[in-house]
Amino acid sequence: MVLLIVGNVVFVAGHQQIGEAVFALVAFVLIVQMVRWPLRAALRDPLLAMLVIGFMWLPIGLLLFFIGGVGTSGATHALTMGAMGGLIMAVSARAFAHRMDDGLRVRGPVVLCFALITLATVLRMAGVLDFAAIAWCFGWLIYFLTLLPLLHGPVPRPVFSGARSR
C-alpha cells in the first residue's frame, strides 16, 4: 500500500517513469501474493471467482502504466472498469446471494452481468467503444433488475458471509 501511494505521488508530481516503475513493482508484489492464494478452489465458486477476477485487474492496470502501448487511458480503464467495477459488483453480489447451509450461492444472472462488465473492460481497452458501452450498460442493467426485487424486507444476516469451508 505504501508503494502504491509513493508511486501515485511520484507519478502525479511529473516523474512518470519513476512512478510507472513503482507501479510495476506493486503489480509484481500483488501477483506474487495472488499466486499464493488457493485459486483452484476460488475459481470453482462463482462468487469467489468474481472477486479474484476483479482483483486481477489491479496488477494488470498497474503493469499497463509501466509497459505502455495502451497508454494511461488503457491502464486507467483497467483499474476503473475492471478492478473497481468488477470488485463493486463482486462484493455487492455477496450481500444478496442465496444463503445455504454450506455457504453462499450466486443469484440469477449475476455471473453473466460480471462477464459483461469484464468484456466491456477488454473492449474499451481495445478501442471498441460502442460495443464496450453496450456491454457495460447491459451488464449493470441486468444486475440492477436482478437486485431490484430484493431491495425490500430485512437485510439477511450475516450480510457477506456464508458457511465457512475448511
Structural topology:
Blueprint: H1 2-12, H2 16-35, H3 39-44, H4 46-67, H5 71-95, E1 98-100, E2 103-105, H6 110-125, H7 129-147
Helix pairs in contact: 1-2, 2-4, 4-5, 5-6, 6-7
Account of the 3D structure:
By secondary structure, the chain is mainly alpha-helical. Helix content is 72%, strand content 4%. The chain is built from seven helices and two strands. A two-stranded antiparallel sheet has the order 1-2. A hairpin with a 2-residue loop joins strand 1 (98-100) and strand 2. The longest helix is centred in the middle third of the chain and has 25 residues, at 71-95. It is globular and about 50 Å long. The chain starts with a helix and ends in a 19-residue tail after the last helix.
- Show unreliable segments: none
Number of helices: 7
What is the percentage of strand-forming residues? Answer: under 5%
Q: How helical, in percent, are the residues?
A: over 70%
